[in-house]
Automatic annotation (TrEMBL):
Natural source organism: Mycoplasmoides gallisepticum (Mycoplasma gallisepticum)
Lineage of origin: Bacteria, Bacillati, Mycoplasmatota, Mycoplasmoidales, Mycoplasmoidaceae
PPM-type phosphatase domain: residues covered: 17-130
Domain of life: Bacteria
Any Pfam family matching the protein: PP2C_2
Protein name: Serine/threonine phosphatase stp
EC number in record: 3.1.3.16
């Protein structure tokens, strides 16, 4: 079956930077994902947080066979991936915040964060997490 995906983002009316990171696709197990991460406006690093999060979720999605997971295991998968995302953002802040402050008038990345909404189609169901 041929699948066609599309996504669109917009910076909005208030912000100058689009902090959206999107992935829509299929893995080798024929599961489908639609993922949107949107950096929290008003805080520096939102685009970084949303991109790091999108990439980590995408990579974990691509390597997982959701057809073999129960509803409970699907929720466990999301919680584990969410924890990995939090740790990855914290690690990025630890590694780059001092350098970022030097380059951006002491503005810190410590509050950088992102929202996450994703749906996965597997097991003839749609699983949605946020």
């Amino acid at each position: 079956m041929k699948k066609i995906y599309a996504s669109s983002t917009h910076v909005g009316i208030v912000r100058e930077e689009n902090q959206d990171a999107v992935f829509v696709g299929t893995n080798q197990y024929h599961n489908i994902i639609a993922l949107v991460c949107d950096g929290l406006g008003g805080y520096k690093g939102g685009a970084i947080a949303s991109t790091l999060t999108r990439d980590l979720i995408r990579d974990n999605f691509l390597s997982t066979n959701f057809n073999k997971l129960s509803d409970e295991k699907m929720e466990e998968w999301f919680k584990k991936v969410l924890l990995k995302c939090k740790k990855q953002i914290a690690k990025y802040i630890d590694e780059y915040d001092k350098q970022f402050q030097k380059e951006h008038d002491n503005v810190s990345l410590k509050q950088m964060a992102t929202t996450i909404v994703l749906s996965i189609i597997a097991n003839e169901k749609i699983y949605t997490f946020w």
